[in-house]
Amino acid sequence: MNRSNDSIPSAPCVGVIVTRPPPGLAPTMAAVAARGLHPIAAPMLLVSQRGLSIGAFRPDAIVLTSGQAVGSLAAPQLHDIPCYVVGAATARRARAAGFAHVTAASGTADDLTALLHSVLPPASRLLLAVGQGYGQEMAAALRGQGHRVLRRCVYAVRPATDLPSDAIAALRAGQVGAVMVYSTRTADAFIAALTPALAPLLAGVEAIAMSDGVAAVLEAGVRWRGIRVAARPDQEAMLDCLPHAAA
Description:
The structure is a single chain. The chain has helices at residues 25-34, 88-97, 109-119, 136-144, 165-172, 184-193, 212-221, 235-240, and strands at 10-11, 15-18, 38-41, 45-49, 61-64, 83-86, 102-105, 125-131, 148-159, 176-181, 206-209, 226-229, 244-245. The protein is elongated. Helices cover 30% and strands 25% of the residues. By secondary structure, it is of the alpha/beta class. The longest helix is centred in the middle third of the chain and has 11 residues, at 109-119.
């Protein structure tokens, strides 16, 4: 989806602000650089890991909606349990952590819920590992399918309150062509971190949004040159929305 009024231009300003937190930040920065653009790190969500405690509960499957949850699932005894995730990037991280059987749904948590309904037997025991404040609706949906769900919050997220100095300097110098935003929480944090002096500078910048919901937050918060919405909620579709590097 393209909410601006023209095709993707070559960018006289080739800086791209990347707002996602680690671990996704580094590969996105590398992918942006591979396109001849200049990535600028500005993670707008700060993630802290929490330990996992499940007692005697032995799940039939582990369910993850974000790669952020993988870091708290280091216990080797979990790694032979089938793991179902959202997105190829989370699947790669789960495999790298030692999970032997990983299945990914492309798209959203709703797509993962539908996949689980199609492949799991009734009354399966599921460990849903999520961030604090996330996963209630998915847990309810899975319980509605007849599964026993243990929801555990294994990380917490809080918004960054300021833009990094590199991003501020690039905006002031007119060197930013695009800002990549992956979630509504990230969009809220980015808009809240803008000072009155910085916000008007985005009138010459493209916003690259993961979804219509993200675009709506960005559109309401500041005036952009345009907002481009990824055709699919994944990394490649986000990258396809970037302006071309100047010759």
